[in-house]
Fold each of these.
Amino acid sequence: MSERDLLTRHRGRATWGERLVPLGDFRDAARRAGIELPEGAREAARAGFVAPRVGGEGTPVEGPFERVVVCGGVYNNRFALDSLLEEAAAFDAEAIYCLGDLGGFGPSPEAVRPVIERGGVRVVQGNYEDSLASGREDCNCGYADPRDNHFADLSYRYTESNCSAAFKEWLGSHPKERRVRVGTRELLLAHGSPRRINEFLFESTTPDAYLEVLCRQRACDGILVTHTGLHWHRPLPSGRDVVNVGVLGRPANDGRREVWYARLSAVEREGAPALEVDRRQLAYDWQALAAEMRRERLPEEFVETIETGWWTTCLEVLPAKERARSRY
Amino acid sequence: MDPLVHGPCGKRPGSVPAGRCLAGDSPPPWARGNKRRVLSAGPTRLRERHGSRQAGAAAPRGLDTLLTHAVAFAAASVVMNEPLHILQRPALPAVPGAPSVRLASLDVLWFQVGGTLCNLACRHCFVSCSPTNHTHEMLTLAQVRPYLEEGARLGVKEYYFTGGEPFLNPEMEAILAATLAVGPVTVLTNGLLLDARRCRGLRELSDQSSYSLDLRVSLDGWDAASNDPIRGDGTFERILAAILALHHAGLDPVVTVTEVRSDLGSDAGKERFLDLLRSRGIAKPRLKVLPVFRIGAEAERAGAYESWQRLRGSDAPEGGFDHLQCSACRMVTDQGVWVCPILVNEPSARMGETLADALGPFELRHQACWTCHEFGVSCRT
């Protein structure tokens, strides 16, 4: 077919699959397809679609607490976990939570367990715990790009081959979500999101309206997640809060070596109970971590991230704004 | 480990800058045999299973295909004066036992904002868009707004705009501004209308929002010789100029390649695209490869689906079809709400007038559904 034929062939016609038909025929057929609900039924359909989800009612509510510390993604970084315990003690935290992904990226997976147990850290399963405990062949991180998956795969293989069966069983013993009361707020703690363990909730691609629907569906006053590696806090129009607490396992792609976690406190604001969210930088012994990663022959790209604060891998998953801020 | 792909020590060449390889090291045991492919595995899997097929070669056809030919001839009276080669199949094949997919959540709301109107007429376009294709007209801001409001109530997470060519729409920037006020946006464009001034305007829109504005620019070859026969004469350099204009405006686009040739989506092929972009000064090249859908213009270019290439109930994985993008998306055109961005030229894929009408399940009886299932296609970035 000539270029000119390609450009002009549709005059007065519609494409119906591979056929060309009179425009009216296509539109008539389209109008006949589908359903047109009465307005009342449409309202009911919309309400039903975002109605509170059944399930999770049996999850015990922990607390109430006045002060808690919440971290995400340890990624085998027991050095940062050590520092977190010190800061939590200084803050007088009543409970310490970790939102999952104890393994991956860093060295010596089983070495985090004594630190977790010493600090009484309450763990939520991440995709790493889920994959290792269930015998999956991959981390189920949720990446779509082969370049991201290449390094995710190296990371998972290392962690998987350095975990005993007993350790994997311990990883799988943690719940996939928790409910915690801080002051008057009942918060839902999950790894990726309350609806999917590997959902990425980035700041620039997570709309308020979506988060409001999630909170209403799960009947909570706020949500705490991790998984993306980047921290943010969104006070919602309804008064709820959603926080991505960041990760302890690698810096936040900001050119700094520190990692991030969150402190939550019950406070009073203008005479009413409120939740204070304080995202904190955490300094730790990154030289020791980098040295051990090299001893374990982990990819030099990973070590570079620890030493520079810039991500060198798993970058393709980043949305436009987050990618524009990154060095690579 | 393939040294061509991963380099001598397992590092993928060029995949990260400043990556270092410890000379003389052999990979540690946990890194050996790391050949798992994810997105790129799809097309290879198909070829391995069923043998390769040259573009344009006639497909072997079974008895049921011959029967559908007979039906198509009977239907020919409604499409008089058309050449026979586009009358290969009836448009609405009945598929007993076709499985259904539920809408688990409405994560992605698509808008056919450019209609089926395009300033190009690419030979692989599964929607057969062209300057004269008015199957779907452009959407106005006034048409888009009610769907944005309804989508927000239903918990939409991301908004996607496609066409046709979205930037032919005279209200495109106003539509983007309205959408970026409520959520993140991705625009799929051929780039030809994006000059430096317009790119600066897009950057301003992006800066005014806390949500991401992502652009996807289509390119189907590493040079004019491979791209232009698909997308049109002279398009290769014009597309690269648009990619650079976006880059200079601080909006690095995702270059989207359709796998019209098997080598485009191979690991080496992807690396060649990334090298091309780096050679033009783009330090952080972004790339997405999509398989072809053998419908629309692509069916004429390279052949339609084989009769066996359709989904049956027995294809359902444990947990159903929640991996398909239609379990989490809907498409708005000027003619209502459709199940997905692929099937807008199939009237039976129209689900209703409002999103509320379109929250029910959809029967996976179209052959393009097979491609999504088999290759794990997501049109998302």
Amino acid sequence: MDIFYDAATRVASRSILDWKAAGKPVVGYTCSYTPAEIFHAAGILPVRLRGIETEGMEVGDTYFGPFICSFPKCILQLAGKGRFSFLDGAIITPGCDGMRRLDECWRKAGEDYEGIVPSYFYYFDVPHKAEDHGMKWYIEEIRLLIRGVEEHFQVTITDEKLRGAIRRFNDGRRLLSRLEAMRCEKDLRVSGTDAFAAIVAGTVMPRDDYTVVLEEWIDSLGKRADTLSEGKKRLMVVGSVSDEIDLFELIENTGKAIVVAENLCFGIRYEGNTIPEDDADPVEALAAHYLGSSVCPRMFGKYRERFELLKERIARTRVDGVVMQNIRFCDLHGAENALFERDLEAMGIPCLRVEREYGPHIDAGRMKLRINAFLERMGARGKTAAAI
Amino acid sequence: MSIVAGCDVGSLTSKAVIMKNGRIVGSHIIKSKPRPSDSADAAMDGAMAAAGVSKADIDYCIGTGYGREKIAFIDESVSEISCHGKGAHWLLPTARTVIDIGGQDCKTMKIDDNGQILKFTANDKCASGTGRFLEVMARVLGVSIDELGGFSRTARAPITLASTCTVWAQADVIKYLNSGVPIDDIGAGINTAMAARVAILVNAVKPEGDIFMTGGVAKNIGVVTTLEKLIGRTIKKARKADPQMAGAIGAALISGERVKGEG
Amino acid sequence: MRPEIREYNYDLLMGKTLRAAAMVPRGTSKETARTYGYIPYFKGIAKAFIDEGPPGITFLDLLATYYENILTAREQGKKIAATTFCNTPAILYAMDIVPATFEILTAIGCLVWKRGMFDYMDYSCEAGMPETSCSSQKGALGAFLAGLCESIDFVVCDTPGVCDTNANAFAFASAFLDKPFYQLNYPSTIGDDRSQKYHIDDYRAMVAFMETHSGKTLDYDRLANILREIDRQDALTAELEDMLMLVPTPVPPIYGLMTYAGRFCFAGHPIYTGLLESMVETARSRMAAGVPGLKSGDEKLRIFMCYIDHYTFDMNFYDYLGERGIAHTGSILARNFREGNKYVENLPDNSYRVDTSSPEAMFESLAQMNARMPMVRSIRGPYDQHGMWLEESLACANLYQADCIIYNGTPGCRNTWGMVKPYARDLEKYGFPVHIMYDDAFDDRVESWEASKERLDEFFHVRGLL
């Protein structure tokens, strides 16, 4: 668990530093649409770029304007302070407007702060639709990315290597599915904080190590006798990007709640499904998974589909209530949370909708108040999702 | 007959209420001090003096408000949302939608016929929908909060105020003052700006039943009447006690429930 | 929402107001002057257009017709498509579908009413839209969500990846009102083979979607007529653009608004051609007489609005420009990027051509034209990339001899606020003083117009421009 916490709470975690010390490259990526398997197949450590441990915001605020979500600002702040010096490359995707502008802001900051732009800086153009020509475009983008990585890092990424990477990542996905199944049980052996730390760690740790440690850990959970769910409300966390362990800790430290599920872009939301390992074209298999099974509101016009998936997960994980958070200025999740709340409350599922800032918890007090009031509200009603 | 107490430490004011047999026997309100524990002590001391009781007489005390975790003498802390719901219900038993505009946030709650919270929303990412906004504006105009409230009635052409950000709003107010715009029009514009922001929150919960306001801003007649116009409903008033005390009252009521073994 | 706002539908109120305004100048000048006395509330905005002469009067008629088309769509058996300004309505007219363009419907309300579209914007937030989303959609959106407009049959937009907050508003409308939705989405580059092909594939899918949901097929004869009308419109616009290059320019500041609003409402429709003809004729005669387009008669400064204009009460922004003697050399909304325009010379990938020789050629013309609409053209990729916002802004500002560049947008504009500071800095490096406005083009509750004006004056003064 310590390895997971280290990976989840530190930008330059132990595993990254060890990898670098062995002389191997690291490439960061901003968004869940980047097939990390590509880098694994090239012997590169893929690392999800995050904004934890940010101090101050002078760099972020200099390039980004004031009306921008704090997530890309935190990433830029860290970059400006040299905290990403371990990166040999960065892949920027148009996850959303704020995140796509990280491309120019980071490069422009690089004109003022020497050495903060990784030598391989690539814009990976992900479409906002998964059908037909959208998928075709995405497949081409993946092939272009592969060629770019091959050229820059002087490696060859064969289909065989890609299949091998897919297999390796699938091992992790299968393990995380086991974790997910455990969290659906009535008697819980794992806290949301621990589970989330393990999930987030997977986005920054070398897959070979991660899979081994994850398997050991999940096996050990199976042997735990104690249950953590006594008298606690089961919650799901939904909404804007979050990789913040302290958010989960804040909820669970009330002693009255346990997070049994999340619908965030760090997590089982996209990890859960395995990718076919024997497809003739592994690139197409990757594309179908990464673009096709996405559940992000950036894929506009798919609210109904996402709501069905959410409902299904709520039923499966037996949550008592849903905490919907959006980072201020995240209009996509902000609007979708409102629709979710409307539709879930109509089904009798209590929801807490809250707007917040990403980053070092400047509004922990506020969040605590909201969570507590929400738990008090649920305590009085005594109705669970299972009863619906 | 048990004696119970509630202590609500807010950002602008701190309140304490002592109840016996469901009735208020003592209460006190003070301007909050920098340290929540000092505010709680001062408020409680005042309430106890008014009630003629000592700490030893109090069977149970609940603390609420943003500073509640720092109060040493309380038996339990409960969110101010739940306390306001209970307090509002006591003040107006028919209340089903509660609007609380406090010093630093604005909340709306739907409550059931026991004062239990069914739903709540809050908006506090900036000052412009809160008591802080009115305080700042009143100071710029050089009037009291009560006087500010009165301007909505006497204004002929209320200004449209830059209301999304308190800083911009201040700059606007100063400019209007310097241009000789009547103070009534400026004051009315301020009340309207405030009410408009609150109206969005209120309408978002789809108010049902009687609507009641708690918190200090409930006493600003300008904001209240403008808000009524915007949401198209009247906001009921209660005479039992000062609506600003709703949080502390609710805390005391919940204390009573605990003593009876109900909560 | 205030109960009284629910008394009348927004589109009905505004349509009738605009039609009445369009009829005011029909009498003698004495009758017109008399009428103003009866409409104290609307006098400012009505005069702003009527005093421009035939172009302004034609514009009022154009706007009234736009609203009336929405109001009479049902009885004419036509479907209504909610769409965005960067998606040309030409295709909708080719398919006999009525456009309801959110940003136009919002902007008009903001110009005509003192309270702007506040009630409807706030209603959007009550319904669940975040407060931080762009006000340009929020106004009209609120009216539709509240059922205070004719109902939408389906939603089409082309802003994912270009302006997500815009696309989000349309996706929200679709989810909230439970209406079919199609999004065109543009790649981050322009002019290269891949993206050119993608434009066509995507456009084809959109047309198929609209055929399904409107029950009408794309009529290529109709399309041919529309494209020929666009040819005429583009030629007239090019002439206005040429006159805008003159120093001083005979083109008044308000012509830019009328040019692009007319285009977003009626591209390919003769009513827009009429407006352009009127503008060109008036500008030509001014040019012949050596009269500058500014009411003050004295052109003291030339500004380039790199993004959008300001649309609050009574044309306050345009009046301000007129008073100060400031010529408006265009905005990101103003230029169509039709091949052959001078500003396109260094940005060939950004232009489109019109070819009516075959259905395929026509379709491609439309798809590529749509891909060159404002924002989707140059906001789609990193601003310093070839053909994107920086290059485009510099090309225009240089060609039209702007003395300075001003950014005006809304707090909801994630895509520009994400890089406007480095962009402004780069423009300064090229020798242009730049002013960033922190207001909202559609909502004076963010920054009052008085405050915006003060800051503009301060900028002009401090940089020695005025």
